[in-house]
Protein backbone atom coordinates (compact mmCIF):
# COMPACT_ATOMS: atom_id res chain seq x y z
CA UNK A 1 0.00 0.00 0.00
CA UNK A 2 1.38 3.38 -0.94
CA UNK A 3 1.64 6.21 1.56
CA UNK A 4 -0.88 8.14 -0.50
CA UNK A 5 -3.57 5.50 0.03
CA UNK A 6 -5.85 6.88 2.79
CA UNK A 7 -7.28 3.44 3.66
CA UNK A 8 -6.04 1.87 6.83
CA UNK A 9 -4.79 -1.62 7.17
CA UNK A 10 -7.50 -4.27 7.60
CA UNK A 11 -10.09 -2.45 5.48
CA UNK A 12 -11.28 -4.45 2.47
CA UNK A 13 -10.55 -3.28 -1.03
CA UNK A 14 -13.48 -1.94 -2.93
CA UNK A 15 -16.75 -0.42 -1.79
CA UNK A 16 -18.06 -1.22 1.72
CA UNK A 17 -21.80 -1.94 2.04
CA UNK A 18 -23.36 -1.42 5.49
CA UNK A 19 -26.81 -2.88 6.15
CA UNK A 20 -28.77 -0.20 8.02
CA UNK A 21 -32.12 -1.90 7.75
CA UNK A 22 -33.94 -2.01 11.12
CA UNK A 23 -35.58 -5.39 10.37
CA UNK A 24 -33.41 -8.40 9.73
CA UNK A 25 -34.45 -9.90 6.35
CA UNK A 26 -33.69 -13.44 7.53
CA UNK A 27 -35.25 -13.51 11.03
CA UNK A 28 -37.72 -10.65 10.56
CA UNK A 29 -36.77 -9.31 13.99
CA UNK A 30 -36.14 -5.71 14.88
CA UNK A 31 -32.47 -5.00 15.18
CA UNK A 32 -31.14 -3.19 18.22
CA UNK A 33 -29.43 0.08 17.33
CA UNK A 34 -25.71 0.06 17.92
CA UNK A 35 -24.50 2.43 20.60
CA UNK A 36 -22.06 4.99 19.35
CA UNK A 37 -19.26 5.98 21.60
CA UNK A 38 -18.19 9.52 22.06
CA UNK A 39 -15.39 10.57 19.80
CA UNK A 40 -11.97 10.24 21.29
CA UNK A 41 -12.90 7.69 23.99
CA UNK A 42 -15.16 4.84 25.08
CA UNK A 43 -16.89 6.76 27.84
CA UNK A 44 -20.24 8.34 26.95
CA UNK A 45 -20.41 12.05 26.89
CA UNK A 46 -22.05 13.66 29.87
CA UNK A 47 -24.79 16.20 29.85
CA UNK A 48 -23.85 19.77 29.12
CA UNK A 49 -22.44 21.42 32.19
CA UNK A 50 -21.88 18.08 34.00
CA UNK A 51 -18.50 16.44 34.32
CA UNK A 52 -18.07 13.09 32.66
CA UNK A 53 -18.42 10.20 35.15
CA UNK A 54 -20.36 12.20 37.75
CA UNK A 55 -23.52 10.53 39.22
CA UNK A 56 -26.87 11.82 38.07
CA UNK A 57 -28.86 13.68 40.73
CA UNK A 58 -31.74 11.78 42.47
CA UNK A 59 -35.17 12.34 40.99
CA UNK A 60 -37.04 13.57 44.08
CA UNK A 61 -40.57 13.68 42.56
CA UNK A 62 -40.25 10.10 41.29
CA UNK A 63 -39.03 8.85 44.69
CA UNK A 64 -41.91 10.59 46.47
CA UNK A 65 -44.43 9.06 44.07
CA UNK A 66 -42.92 5.62 44.58
CA UNK A 67 -43.13 5.96 48.38
CA UNK A 68 -46.78 6.95 48.07
CA UNK A 69 -47.53 3.86 45.98
CA UNK A 70 -45.81 1.64 48.56
CA UNK A 71 -47.90 3.20 51.34
CA UNK A 72 -51.11 2.61 49.38
CA UNK A 73 -50.15 -1.01 48.74
CA UNK A 74 -49.46 -1.58 52.44
CA UNK A 75 -52.82 -0.05 53.37
CA UNK A 76 -54.65 -2.21 50.81
CA UNK A 77 -52.83 -5.30 52.06
CA UNK A 78 -53.84 -4.56 55.67
CA UNK A 79 -57.48 -4.08 54.61
CA UNK A 80 -57.54 -7.35 52.65
CA UNK A 81 -55.93 -9.19 55.56
CA UNK A 82 -58.59 -7.83 57.95
CA UNK A 83 -61.32 -8.89 55.50
CA UNK A 84 -59.92 -12.42 55.31
CA UNK A 85 -59.70 -12.67 59.10
CA UNK A 86 -63.31 -11.49 59.45
CA UNK A 87 -64.49 -13.99 56.85
CA UNK A 88 -62.62 -16.77 58.61
CA UNK A 89 -64.23 -15.88 61.95
CA UNK A 90 -67.69 -15.77 60.34
CA UNK A 91 -67.12 -19.18 58.75
CA UNK A 92 -66.05 -20.70 62.09
CA UNK A 93 -69.16 -19.30 63.81
CA UNK A 94 -71.35 -20.54 60.95
CA UNK A 95 -69.87 -24.04 61.20
CA UNK A 96 -70.45 -24.15 64.95
CA UNK A 97 -74.04 -22.98 64.50
CA UNK A 98 -74.70 -25.60 61.82
CA UNK A 99 -73.26 -28.38 64.01
CA UNK A 100 -75.36 -27.23 66.97
CA UNK A 101 -78.52 -27.04 64.87
CA UNK A 102 -77.82 -30.49 63.43
CA UNK A 103 -77.56 -32.00 66.92
CA UNK A 104 -80.72 -30.18 68.01
CA UNK A 105 -82.70 -31.43 65.01
CA UNK A 106 -81.54 -34.98 65.68
CA UNK A 107 -82.54 -34.75 69.37
CA UNK A 108 -85.97 -33.35 68.48
CA UNK A 109 -86.54 -36.14 65.95
CA UNK A 110 -85.72 -38.79 68.57
CA UNK A 111 -88.02 -37.10 71.09
CA UNK A 112 -90.93 -37.02 68.65
CA UNK A 113 -90.54 -40.74 67.94
CA UNK A 114 -90.54 -41.66 71.62
CA UNK A 115 -93.51 -39.40 72.36
CA UNK A 116 -95.53 -41.61 70.03
CA UNK A 117 -94.18 -44.75 71.74
CA UNK A 118 -95.03 -43.71 75.31
CA UNK A 119 -98.41 -45.42 75.07
CA UNK A 120 -96.69 -48.68 74.08
CA UNK A 121 -94.27 -48.37 77.02
CA UNK A 122 -97.21 -47.78 79.38
CA UNK A 123 -98.90 -50.94 78.10
CA UNK A 124 -95.69 -52.92 78.63
CA UNK A 125 -95.41 -51.62 82.19
CA UNK A 126 -99.06 -52.44 82.93
CA UNK A 127 -98.68 -55.96 81.51
CA UNK A 128 -95.59 -56.56 83.61
CA UNK A 129 -97.35 -55.41 86.80
CA UNK A 130 -100.23 -57.80 86.10
CA UNK A 131 -97.81 -60.64 85.20
CA UNK A 132 -99.17 -60.80 81.67
CA UNK A 133 -95.81 -60.20 79.99
CA UNK A 134 -95.07 -63.72 78.74
CA UNK A 135 -94.08 -65.57 75.59
CA UNK A 136 -93.22 -63.71 72.42
CA UNK A 137 -94.78 -60.51 73.72
CA UNK A 138 -92.20 -60.45 76.51
CA UNK A 139 -89.30 -60.72 74.06
CA UNK A 140 -90.71 -57.90 71.91
CA UNK A 141 -91.30 -55.71 74.97
CA UNK A 142 -87.76 -56.22 76.21
CA UNK A 143 -86.36 -55.34 72.78
CA UNK A 144 -88.42 -52.13 72.67
CA UNK A 145 -87.17 -51.12 76.10
CA UNK A 146 -83.59 -51.94 75.10
CA UNK A 147 -83.76 -49.71 72.03
CA UNK A 148 -85.34 -46.92 74.09
CA UNK A 149 -82.51 -47.14 76.60
CA UNK A 150 -79.96 -47.11 73.77
CA UNK A 151 -81.18 -43.66 72.74
CA UNK A 152 -81.11 -42.37 76.32
CA UNK A 153 -84.79 -42.69 77.25
CA UNK A 154 -85.08 -43.18 81.03
CA UNK A 155 -88.18 -43.59 83.22
CA UNK A 156 -88.36 -41.69 86.49
CA UNK A 157 -90.73 -41.25 89.41
CA UNK A 158 -90.89 -43.25 92.64
CA UNK A 159 -93.12 -43.33 95.67
CA UNK A 160 -91.82 -40.98 98.35
CA UNK A 161 -90.14 -38.50 95.97
CA UNK A 162 -90.64 -34.81 96.85
CA UNK A 163 -93.13 -33.25 94.48
CA UNK A 164 -91.42 -31.14 91.81
CA UNK A 165 -93.79 -29.29 89.45
CA UNK A 166 -91.08 -29.27 86.77
CA UNK A 167 -91.01 -33.08 86.49
CA UNK A 168 -94.25 -34.18 88.18
CA UNK A 169 -97.90 -33.70 87.27
CA UNK A 170 -100.24 -34.00 90.25
CA UNK A 171 -103.50 -35.73 89.32
CA UNK A 172 -104.70 -36.49 92.86
CA UNK A 173 -104.32 -34.97 96.31
CA UNK A 174 -104.76 -37.38 99.21
CA UNK A 175 -104.35 -37.04 102.98
CA UNK A 176 -100.99 -37.76 104.56
CA UNK A 177 -100.28 -41.46 104.91
CA UNK A 178 -98.14 -42.70 107.79
CA UNK A 179 -95.12 -44.61 106.60
CA UNK A 180 -95.34 -43.12 103.11
CA UNK A 181 -95.21 -39.39 103.76
CA UNK A 182 -91.96 -38.57 105.48
CA UNK A 183 -92.31 -36.45 108.58
CA UNK A 184 -89.13 -34.57 107.64
CA UNK A 185 -90.64 -33.46 104.32
CA UNK A 186 -91.29 -29.74 103.98
CA UNK A 187 -93.69 -29.96 101.03
CA UNK A 188 -95.99 -32.31 99.14
CA UNK A 189 -94.72 -35.84 98.57
CA UNK A 190 -95.53 -38.33 95.81
CA UNK A 191 -97.46 -41.14 97.48
CA UNK A 192 -98.48 -42.99 94.30
CA UNK A 193 -97.09 -43.15 90.75
CA UNK A 194 -99.98 -43.30 88.31
CA UNK A 195 -97.78 -43.09 85.21
CA UNK A 196 -93.98 -42.89 85.21
CA UNK A 197 -92.26 -39.95 83.58
CA UNK A 198 -89.67 -40.23 80.82
CA UNK A 199 -86.69 -38.07 79.99
CA UNK A 200 -83.70 -38.02 77.63
CA UNK A 201 -80.76 -36.49 79.41
CA UNK A 202 -82.05 -33.30 81.03
CA UNK A 203 -85.03 -32.94 78.68
CA UNK A 204 -88.34 -34.17 80.10
CA UNK A 205 -90.39 -36.04 77.49
CA UNK A 206 -93.35 -36.54 79.78
CA UNK A 207 -93.74 -35.59 83.46
CA UNK A 208 -94.55 -38.30 85.95
CA UNK A 209 -98.26 -38.36 86.80
CA UNK A 210 -98.61 -38.83 90.54
CA UNK A 211 -100.84 -38.57 93.57
CA UNK A 212 -99.48 -36.22 96.22
CA UNK A 213 -100.02 -35.75 99.92
CA UNK A 214 -99.02 -32.97 102.27
CA UNK A 215 -96.51 -33.78 105.01
CA UNK A 216 -98.07 -34.70 108.36
CA UNK A 217 -98.69 -31.87 110.81
CA UNK A 218 -96.16 -32.20 113.60
CA UNK A 219 -98.47 -30.77 116.28
CA UNK A 220 -101.36 -33.02 115.32
CA UNK A 221 -99.10 -36.04 115.15
CA UNK A 222 -97.75 -35.25 118.60
CA UNK A 223 -101.21 -34.73 120.14
CA UNK A 224 -102.70 -37.94 118.83
CA UNK A 225 -100.38 -40.33 120.73
CA UNK A 226 -100.83 -38.26 123.93
CA UNK A 227 -104.57 -38.60 123.81
CA UNK A 228 -104.35 -42.33 123.25
CA UNK A 229 -101.95 -42.67 126.16
CA UNK A 230 -104.28 -40.62 128.39
CA UNK A 231 -107.16 -42.92 127.55
CA UNK A 232 -105.05 -45.96 128.29
CA UNK A 233 -103.79 -44.58 131.63
CA UNK A 234 -107.24 -43.62 132.91
CA UNK A 235 -108.30 -46.08 135.68
CA UNK A 236 -111.48 -48.00 135.22
CA UNK A 237 -113.97 -47.38 138.06
CA UNK A 238 -115.72 -50.40 139.41
CA UNK A 239 -119.44 -50.17 139.30
CA UNK A 240 -121.21 -51.05 142.54
CA UNK A 241 -124.15 -53.34 142.09
CA UNK A 242 -127.49 -51.90 143.01
CA UNK A 243 -128.87 -53.10 146.27
From TrEMBL:
Transmembrane segments: none annotated. Pfam families: GrpE. InterPro entries: GrpE, GrpE_CC, GrpE_head. GO terms for biological process: protein folding. One of its GO terms (cellular component) is cytoplasm. Residues 1-72, 209-243 are annotated as: Disordered. Residues 44-57 have a biased composition (Low complexity). One of its GO terms (molecular function) is adenyl-nucleotide exchange factor activity. Keywords: Chaperone, Cytoplasm, Stress response. The keyword Chaperone applies. It is found in: Cytoplasm. Residues 16-35 have a biased composition (Basic and acidic residues). Belongs to the GrpE family. Participates actively in the response to hyperosmotic and heat shock by preventing the aggregation of stress-denatured proteins, in association with DnaK and GrpE. It is the nucleotide exchange factor for DnaK and may function as a thermosensor. Unfolded proteins bind initially to DnaJ; upon interaction with the DnaJ-bound protein, DnaK hydrolyzes its bound ATP, resulting in the formation of a stable complex. GrpE releases ADP from DnaK; ATP binding to DnaK triggers the release of the substrate protein, thus completing the reaction cycle. Homodimer. This is Protein GrpE. It comes from Microlunatus parietis. The gene is grpE.
